[in-house]
Design a protein that fits this description.
Helix content: 40-55%
Radius of gyration: 27 Å
Shape: globular
Strand order of the largest sheet: 5-4-6-3-7-8-2-9
Structural class: alpha/beta
Number of helices: 21
Length: about 600
């Protein structure tokens, strides 16, 4: 351009000479931006993010040992005897159990989870003792004692950050860590960073657990007749599989062969239903002496299991692939066999099929690999700072950028935030402020469940528009098929999402008490469905009586038609069970009557379908 009207085109060398200064300037600006991003993404000393804890002279006590060794029992004694304490657990169900047990021992205790708040004082004043899920611990509140359970989950790829935050940040004079011995290395590294003393208390398993050399079944595979597969089961056995559909099939086969009811526990089963199933199995007078379960039994439930029978030694990895069980996974499950103080103090572990005996033995015998790294993740404030430097970048892009440029030390790893980024992209077009979009992206939503995503998107739309969300949901009927169980579990999760949001945005989600009641009714309907699927023996009446206090829906649905179609049993629920196909049922699900506008105290307007 500067060559003049009569000059010819620029040569390559001339173009390079002309453009190079601009390119260098752009690169310098980009390098400066990256340097600034790295400065704001500084996470090499995450302990410094918790000044209250750093000002205290904390004592760290690690109760190290395998399952059923008494390590948590010892820590919980200290929890109850001190003036103010907090228990941080991996599961809501476990936090509930500890809270209930503490109150029953005469120590007032509150409960805080993502979607629950329970206060021992009816007026709502907080008690000195608290149980919570580990993500919910208030690191600024001061306690005498903090118990952090299952501390080996500090290495979990998605949730490890919560254990790291609790360990580094909780403001307690004594911090009791309970977990596997393989966590010691990383705990020592973190205590070195915080300059705090560490005391290690070693525990040994209280009861014996034997590995059975012979398979439980003489069959060669799952295609064998049910009688061949299950005739060798004995009272107190727990059959473990890693697919919800397989668990239903196994349970049905056992009940047909043995003409006896079977309890069932798996991860997506509501906690209330899991607890009922556990109580039935543990009660020697219930008539339920067999259990089928997923790896959900690994933590959160006290079960009187005599023998753990592995129907599979592989599980899905969450991405559609089947992978072998790891040593820690297998030992966590196997450790549930035999329980100190129960009717089965000595336990046993076995494979269902002969071809799994050696793989199971090898897996259980794998030497534990030390945990060397603790999980961390960026706070919202860090992401908001990045937004100031990258104003047009969506939330998922901010998380991506932070993960690429942040500085972390060799004692930490960045937790997998893929689920958060997927949800962030779902909520991005809805016009939510960045902070609120971030909160919605942290909600307990399974992005693979179409029903949950559809409901959550509508919740977010209403919140962005300032529209109050009131669910129009009837009392669910009793599920009669696998597909119907899946749909009721999805309904339960939608109600759980509403409850979670109601504590973050109470103005938009004001219907908390009614939704909680429907949530319990939904859990009760699932329990009743499990009961109805059991053998029609005289014992069934007694088992049904045991759950009558869980939900009023149990009584209302007990006399429902035995027809496999739930259409006659569901009373105006969100989901219309018009098809046995899960995909069709979810596709036909209606949320059009789910939402309504706040109409200034007048009669409700027509259901909001936006």
């Amino acid at each position: 351009a500067g060559a003049g009207a009569g000059a010819g085109p620029l040569t390559a060398a001339q173009m390079q000479e002309a453009l190079l200064p601009a390119v260098h300037a752009a690169l310098r600006r980009a390098a400066a931006d990256v340097a600034l991003l790295r400065q704001f993404g500084e996470l090499r000393r995450p302990a410094s993010l918790y000044p209250t804890a750093r000002q205290m002279r904390r004592k760290i006590i690690f109760h190290s040992g395998p399952t059923n060794s008494g390590k948590t029992y010892s820590a919980m004694n200290r929890f109850r005897e001190c003036g103010a304490a907090v228990y941080c657990g991996p599961l809501r169900l476990l936090a509930q159990q500890v809270c209930q047990d503490t109150n029953e021992r005469g120590v007032p205790c509150d409960l805080i989870t993502g979607d629950q708040r329970r206060f021992a004082d009816p007026s709502g004043n907080r008690s000195p003792h608290l149980t919570c899920t580990v993500e919910m611990v208030d690191v600024k509140r001061e306690f005498d004692v903090c118990v952090i359970d299952e501390v080996q989950m500090i290495a979990d790829q998605e949730r490890g950050w919560a254990w790291t935050r609790a360990l580094l940040g909780v403001s307690a004079r004594e911090v009791h860590l309970c977990g596997e011995s393989r966590t010691l290395e990383v705990i020592r590294a973190l205590c070195h960073e915080t300059k705090e003393d560490l005391e290690v208390r070693q525990y040994q398993r209280l009861t014996a657990s034997d590995f059975e050399e012979e398979p439980v079944s003489a069959a060669e595979g799952p295609w064998a007749p049910g009688a061949v597969l299950w005739e060798a089961l004995r009272p107190g056995d727990c059959v473990v599989a890693f697919s919800r559909r397989m668990l239903f099939q196994v349970r049905q086969q056992i009940q047909q062969v043995r003409d006896t009811p079977v309890a069932m526990v798996y991860g997506s089963l509501p906690p209330e239903a899991r607890e009922v199933q556990a109580k039935l199995f543990n009660d020697p007078d219930s008539g339920v002496d067999l259990l089928v379960a997923s790896d959900a039994i690994g933590m959160g439930l006290n079960l009187n299991i005599r023998r753990v029978v592995f129907a599979r030694v592989q599980k899905l990895d969450g991405r559609g692939s089947t992978v072998p069980l790891t040593g820690p996974q297998a030992r966590q499950i196997a450790g549930r066999a035999g329980r100190y103080g129960s009717i089965y103090p000595a336990g046993a572990v076995a494979a269902l099929f002969g071809h799994d005996v050696e793989p199971l033995r090898s897996t259980l015998m794998q030497p534990p690999e030390d945990i060397a790294l603790a999980g961390i993740k960026p706070s919202f404030d860090m992401l908001e700072t990045f937004r100031g430097l990258l104003p047009d970048t969506p939330l998922s892009g901010l998380i991506d950028t932070f993960e690429r440029v942040c500085n972390i030390s060799g004692d930490y790893f960045m937790c997998d935030s893929e689920a958060t980024k997927v949800l962030a992209d779902i909520f991005a077009p809805l016009g939510l402020p960045l902070r609120e979009q971030y909160v919605f992206s942290l909600a307990p939503i399974d992005s693979q469940d179409e029903a949950q995503v559809k409901a959550a998107r509508k919740f977010a739309k209403c919140h962005a528009r300032g529209v109050e969300v009131v669910l129009q949901v009837g009392v669910p009927g009793t599920p009669r098929s696998f597909a119907q169980f899946q749909l009721l579990e999805s309904l339960y999760k939608v109600l759980e999402i509403y409850m979670w949001l109601s504590y973050r945005f109470p103005e938009t989600f004001p219907d908390r008490e009614r939704v909680e009641a429907i949530k319990l009714q939904t859990a009760g309907a699932i329990v009743e469905g499990l009961q109805s699927a059991s053998s029609a023996s005289k014992k069934r009446k007694k088992r049904t009586a045991n759950i009558s206090n869980l939900s009023a829906s149990a009584e209302s649905t007990a006399n429902s038609s035995e027809d496999d179609s739930v259409a006659g049993a569901v009373k105006s629920a969100i989901f219309q069970f018009s098809s046995p196909s899960v995909s069709n049922a979810i596709r036909n699900a209606t949320y059009e009557g789910m939402l309504r506008r706040d109409n200034g105290g007048r009669e409700p307007a027509q259901p909001y379908a936006g």
